[in-house]
Design a protein that fits this description.
Strand order of the largest sheet: 2-3-1-4
Helix content: 40-55%
Number of helices: 6
Low-confidence stretches: none
Number of domains: 2
Largest sheet: 4 strands, antiparallel
Number of strands: 4
Order of helices and strands: EHEHHHHEHE
Structural class: alpha+beta
Distance between the termini: 18 Å
Shape: rod-shaped
Strand content: 5-15%
Radius of gyration: 25 Å
Length: about 180
């Protein structure tokens, strides 16, 4: 049965991080793939339990650094060889050792900017709204002392009644339907 129109998912609340990790491991083992954990502080075991292992920020940083290197090296080559060639003491116009320091600086600059903006883009930030903000127990406890597991309605296994019954077997404090 497809999810109801306007349903984001079901949110289960737990009191301890160990209960959350246990529930997330069980959900992953039982075939759930569209889920997320929300905690007031980082819980590494929760990230492992939901299968979150891929991080693309290092790749974005590498690509940004290589683009900075190529951009500055190309700019210096174009300026020295094509646009404004100068004969200074009989030296060649294409003198690549002189290009190394500025190209290195641009590599660092572009890598840093790519890391910062890439991280924001990959995290979907700035996000001024999320459907979980509609859940009253999430607003009260997500940043203080509660731990949440959300099974999203986009998961192929999601059925509102069956998912609620499944979450009840994980012994949460409460289960709330999250509307868009």
């Amino acid at each position: 049965m497809p999810p109801r129109e306007g349903t984001y998912g079901l949110l289960a609340e737990f009191d301890t991080p160990s209960d959350l990790v246990r529930a997330a491991q069980a959900a992953r083992r039982d075939g759930w793939r569209r889920m997320d954990c929300y905690t007031p502080y980082p819980v590494e075991e929760a990230a492992e339990a939901i299968g979150f292992h891929r991080n693309k920020v290092p790749l974005v940083t590498l690509i940004g650094g290589l683009m900075g290197l190529a951009a500055m090296f190309s700019l210096e080559t174009w300026i020295s060889v094509l646009a404004y060639p100068l004969n200074i003491a009989g030296r060649p116009t294409y003198s690549w050792p002189a290009f190394v320091v500025p190209a290195y600086e641009w590599t660092i600059l572009w890598a840093g900017l790519s890391a910062a903006f890439g991280m924001l883009a990959l995290n979907g930030l700035p996000a001024l709204y999320h459907p979980l903000f509609n859940a009253p127990n999430f607003r009260k406890g997500a940043s203080q002392d509660k731990f949440f597991l959300c099974l999203e309605a986009l998961d192929p296994k999601f059925d509102l009644i069956e998912t609620r019954a499944y979450l009840a077997t994980l012994e949460p404090v409460s289960v709330v339907e999250v509307e868009y």
